[in-house]
Every structure is written in structure tokens, then in C-alpha cells.
Records
---
Amino acid sequence: MPCPAGVVTGAVWIRNPRSTWPVCCAAAVVGGLHEASAQSGIGPSDEKLICGKGETGMSASDSPEQGRYLYCIVRPGTTDDLDLRGIDDQPISEVVEDGLGVLVSPSAVKRYRLSRQYILGHELVIEQAMTRGTVLPIKFGTVAESEAAIREKVLQARGDDLHRLMIAMDGKVELGLKVIWNQERIYADIVARYADIRRLRDQLAGRPPNEAHYQRVRLGKMVEEALTDRRLEDADAIMARLEPFATDTRRNDIYGEMMILNAAFLVETAREPEFDVEIQALDNDMNDLMKFLYVGPLPPFNFVDLVISWS
């Protein structure tokens, strides 16, 4: 199924509720929707799990030694029927210990730069694995010197915490939502709502651009402040309608003047249809004032991003 070319007025649904393959790699569709690839790692708000510190767990210098690149934690054997390929088209294998598995691929022991190619390779493996069961994403760029190190430092040292986190994520998926104003509509709403902005705009209408410079700057600041207030109001209203359907939520950074909300929701699979219905209702209620970009189901990138320490 091809990915939509971009955001259009109304709701854009990039949803694939129950197929055996993701509709497309999330980062390729909505770069930045889940910020996990560049953030420090955290678990769910009620069960934080940080396996040490450091982006790769290795020295910054490249090494010719053959190590293992880590993608995610799974239950052993759940992805055996998938022909998975990882970063640099390397084959995916599984390191297993005590009822847990780590999906890995051969890799030099080195630091991976944050490039689109590498991030997509990392996330696509996790998204494919999610089609077979619960996954716990591991922070982008994590490399181990050996499979023995993975068993000792991850699966043995953190096994109890990982089992608890797996149970916490069972039966849940991440759903992502970006909301963007229709620029023409929101400016019209601001002018209609604020009499002082409307009055100053009318006073400046028809005057040459080189006149009343300071009044024009003042008008711009007034509009900017009004947009900030309205953004908070609209974002809070949207979250208030969607939060009852989620077990946890994250608000990520927004980009550009017209973006209202960039959020992720951890939702029980049984409640996905309800969430879908509420998104559609929001889109209908907004009457083209807002554009919705709605994606999922995704692995819990915003709720689990394990950081591994090799020291």
C-alpha cells in the first residue's frame, strides 16, 4: 500500500490495524512523530527501565571487531517465520536467554551516526517484529562486542525488569497523531476572536509597507501571542478527548507555526476501534480547521527505548 504523498485537509489515516506487515515504516511517513531514535531511553511512566548510559555502549572509535547490533527484545521464536534484514541489509538473528530474545545483526563495533538510512533500518526491523508479538525497542545505535555480552549484560542482568516490561506492553500498541491548523482558517478565527487584533489590522489596511513599521511589528506579536494561547487551548482539548482511550500518552516537540500537537498514545488493542472513532469524530468536529495525520499501529517507541550499558 503506497504511503500518502503528504498531509491534506482533513484526517490522513495511515492505519493498518491487523495485517501481517506494517503499512510503511513510520519514520518514512512522519519523520519525527516518534522521537525515540534521538532521545534518551525510558520505559513506561510507571515502570522506567534505563539499562545504563551511553548511546552505543562502545568507544567512539571504529573497530574492525565483529560485534552485534541490537534492535529490540522479543519473546523467543516469535519472529522465526520472518525473513528479516537489518541495517546495511545484514541478516537478523536472535540471542536467547531465560525466556527472552534480542534481535541482532552482524556489525562492526562502532558508533552509528543518526542518518535517515540507519534509523529507518533500525525501526523497520522493530516494526516487522511487532507483527508477531510484543517488542521492547532498544535505543538506536546500540552495539555489543559479542553475543555473550548480550546474554550477560542484558538478558541476565536485566531479565526480571525486562519480563515485567514485556508484560506491561502486552496487548498494547502505539498510535501517533500530528495535528496542524489550516493556515487560512486559523488566521480568520484569530481575527474574528480578538477585537484588538482586528482593529489594528483594519487601521493598517491600505497603508504602504514602509509606513507604520512599529505598528506592523506590534500586530505580528499580537497574532503570535494569540496563536500560542490558541495552540495550548486546542491541544489540551484534543488530548482531553483522546486520553480516556489510552493507558499512557506522550507529547513530543512541535515544529512550525501551524503545528498544534505531536503526540503518541499507548492503547490497548481492544480499544483501537474506539480510538479510531474518536479521531474521526474530532476531524468531523473541526470542520477543516485542522489537519490530522494519524499513524499506527506502531511499536512503543515513545514508551520504551532501552539504553544498554556494557560497563
---
Amino acid sequence: MAPGLIARLGGPTGVAAIVTAILILFGIGAVVVPALSDGGGEPSAAAAAAEPAPAAGTSEAATEAASSAPAPSTASTTGKASPTVNASFNSGYEDRVVQLVNGERRKAKCEAVRMHPQLRTAARAHSADMAARDFSRSQGSDGSSPQDRVSRAGYNGFSDELVAKDGDAGDVVKSWLRDNNSREILLDCATKSIGVGAAMRGKTPYWTVDTGRA
């Protein structure tokens, strides 16, 4: 457009107004007006607002914090351990039983038995079990038999077992000798070895005698 005509129309602004009026008649003024009125400058505030906001990203700090977060605890709860009693043994009682048994064996014309360390280990283990749990029987609290315990101790040639609760060495030997089955076990001439355990629970002894033929 000629400079003189532009000047007569009131400069660029006047020209824009006239062009806008013409374009409105054709329904496209809203598209052209911003570009003409702004003279090719920065987008208007309305145009900027119309643009979609950039997607929010996860910052490096947030990612690092999430990755370093401690995992939930998965610790399991365990039941209470079985109660135990620290066993003490009366070796004087144990040795006295062997002396008394050998005295009776001499009367029966049988050879004396000797205290065998492995049989003694088995006998003490069972006496400690009985003292800890206050029972008197040949089956252990773990279901073990006398043969099981003697085998664990490493002894071969097991013969039999006697158990009792309470009484000193003299009392328990007298009690066993009054019982026919127990008497036969103690006075069996084929028996070579013996193991005696006297575990104490307070002042109460828990007795085990294991006999063997080796």
C-alpha cells in the first residue's frame, strides 16, 4: 500500500482497523487481528494462556527420595522358646549308686560293673530332661527312647534303663531292689557297664541308670 494512503488512513493502526472490519465480514477476523495488531511481536497473554501447560515431570530429587525409601518391614514373630532349667549333677550320689549296686552283685556272684563314660552321658542327659520338665519316665520329652539316647552318646551294647525321682542313693537303690524287674536289671550277670545320672532340681534328684553289655 502506498505511503501516502497509509498516512491518510491514520498509519498502520488505521490500516489494521479497516482490514479487520473487512475480514469480520468474512468471519476470519479473529485469526488475523492478533498478528496485525501486535506487529509480529511476542504472543499475546490470551494466546499464551491457550497453550497447553507442559506435563509435570518427576524431579531428580523426588525420584532419588522414592528409591531410597526403606522397604516395609517383613519381620516374622516367633513363638517363645521352651523353658529350660540349668541342670546340676550330684556326682557323689552317682558314684554311690555304683558302689551299692556292686555290693549287691557280689552277693549274687556277679562281676562288678564299671561306670562307663558314654552310658553316663546318656543317663545324665535324660535326668537333666526329667529335672527340667519335672517328669519321671523312660521316654524323653523329645520322644526319644533309652536306646536312642545311648546311641547318640556313641555306646553300643545297650541293655536296659531305670528311672526314678527323689531319694538319695541308698533310697533309690533299695527301691529298685524291692521291684523284681528292676532287681533283675541291676543283678544281671551279663551286664558289664553302667551309667548313672542324678540331675538336681532344687534338692530333688532325678535318677537315670543305663546298663550295657560292653
